[in-house]
Every structure is written in C-alpha cells, then in structure tokens.
Amino acid sequence: MKNAMQTITIAILLLTGTIATTLIGSDETGVFGPVDTITLGSGNDSVNITNRDSRIAFGEATTSTVWSMGFMEVGKALSQMMEASHFVDARTELQKNLEERLQEARDVLDIIMGEAQALPQDSDEHPAMRQRWDQAMGEFQQLQQIATEQQGALFASQMIEAYEEIITAVEVVAENKNVDVVLRFIAPDEPIETSNPDVAIMQIRLRTALTYPKGIDLTDDVLTELGLESQ
User: Fold this and answer.
1) What is the CA radius of gyration of the chain?
2) Which has fewest Cβ within 10 Å: 119, 125, 143, 191?
C-alpha cells in the first residue's frame, strides 16, 4: 500500500511539474523508494518507467531503454597502431622483396635495350628484338601491378587487425565504465588541416557529434587500454 501511494504521488508531482529533476524521500538518506514502477499519464497514453537490468526502461522493447553512450576517435588509435614494429617490419620486408623482383625486371629491360642499340640499323633482328622488349615490358608492368596489389592487401589486413584490437579495447573500457553504446567520431574541435576539398568533406562527415559532454569521450581511456599515447 505504501509503494502504491508513493507511485501515485510521484506521478502527480511529475505531471504537475512540481518535481523537475530529483525525487527526495522524507528520511535522512534523501532517497525515495524503492519503487518498482512509476506510471506517467493514464489510460492508453500512460508510460511505465521501470528498472530493467540496471537501465531505465519505458516499454517492453529493447529499444525502449535508456542506454548510456560514449564516443571514440578511432583514428588516433589506428594511426599509432599502424606504426607498431611488427607491422612496419612486415611492410618493409615486403617492400624489399618487391623491389628486388622489380629490379630484376628492369635489368632485363636494360639488357634488351643495350642489345637493340648495338644492332646495325639494317639488321634483320630488330623485329625479334622489339618483340622481346614488348614481352619484357609487359612482364615488368604486370609485376608493378602485382606489387601494388600485394602492398595494398598487406596494409588492409594490418588495418583490420589493428581495428579488431581497438574494438576489444573499447569493449573493455565500455564494460568498466558501464557504457552501452560507443560511436566512432572525430571531435568537432579537432582542426581540419587539408587543402583537398574531398578530404575536407570527409573530415566534416566524420564529425558526427557537433557538440557533446566531454566526459563521454572515451578516446584517452581506450588509448591507455591499448598501451598507446594520449593525443
């Protein structure tokens, strides 16, 4: 009966605007309750506010829950992680191997060029030499394409690996801070340093939060969890 009277009293006070921000009990603790449900309104338009798994809920659906939110600037972590020694070593090793293969192909072209220049102008070997050159050049260009693709594939795989580590760190920080939803963003006060309009518009689009409480930026916490430097 006592809880029922408390619920009715709260609803009346909320609807009349008497209570705006806090509900204070009559005892020395300043805590009202416990109350299982607060009903606002009446009939079909009423809303029942309840505690569901330590979250404020105003309906049965999962979407009818008040979730805590945070932001994370992924780029600050990703840029540092891509410079990790094992990533850099792998890219350097691939670059070295590719350059050796490309140099071998260049040497073949140089040999063919030297032989062609040594031929007399009226030599019958010019067509065959031209054919050798075209074939060697085609192989060289194909090798350049392969090199570009292999470097891109390695860089992409490293970014994916780094991103997955970032997500793991975000999950740890979010659990520790009791945050439900973490959105990727760039802080609106970060300078946009580019003269390229395409890059500028992309930077603007990534600034999903135009203003936000500073306390919900989890970037530094995630960087610390990853063992990276705060920026």
Assistant:
1) 33
2) 191
